[in-house]
Write the structure tokens for this entry.
Amino acid sequence: MIPTQSAPAAAPGPATGGATTAGRSARRTYAADLKLLIRSASALASLIWLLALILIAAVFPLFITDAANHQDLALRFLPPFTVDHGLSFVLGADSLGRPILLQLIVGARTSLLVAACTVALSALVGTVIGIVSGYYGGWADTVLMRLADILHTVPSLLLALAVLYVLQPSITNLVLVLAVTRIPVYLRTARAQTLELRERVFVESSRSIGASDWRIMAKDITPMVTPTMRTLAMLEVANVILAAASLSFLGIGLQRPDVDWGMMVSDGRSYLSVAWWVTVFPGLTIVATALAANLLSNWLRAIEDPTQRGFFVKPAKRTTKTARS
């Protein structure tokens, strides 16, 4: 005889299983992702470029900062592609005789640090607020969305210019200003997904077994929102790098002795006709890094969407041979 009390005891199973089944598309194994990455030449090249930059920016500035800032007017505007004065001058020298290559490496640390901190802070705050706002709704959701609309209508670069003009330009202030301007991007995206997810069956199942709202948001909704936020964060890395470089180019961003790629472009713009390398090399580095972040974000989006996967991932070669007629 089957006990009549067994149905309530088994209720937690479907809720947990439903959430697990619904989240399988967002939790891909590392092995599967690696295979897809190898089959995408653009994504693989982008990842190698970004990882190389991160490694170089993390290690080399510890040993070359003094050499990068050393001024030698005898080497002023030394042309590139010469090793007569050492490998550090292979990309030439700027108007004060500082090696461009070492300046690029030190600038990579600053540029990537600003981008990483800005994206992490804005993604964390925006995602949390977006999930809470979309789940509860009501007047709090209305107020938060109106604030997000106001921030979204004001050009982020203009807002950063105004704030940094009043405050002292520094890495901390630059990160805070850029993070505030990027929060609405994550907030609106997380809220839109939460509005749809809160009506799913696995969320209703969690409610039926007495799960709290905070547990539902943490265990059921957040894992489903994370893949989209990951893709968006990678795309925002490119936007933040370009924004920080623009502020430094305009003279409102970082100031010496700190150095980033935008500052290097700004320093060399007056000498573009006589020393093109002072501006071109940091400019190319900015373009290559932003492009790599964009391509990698496109790949992350493609592996989550089978309809777009063919644009970024080559199909696997068939191993079966057709019989000859």
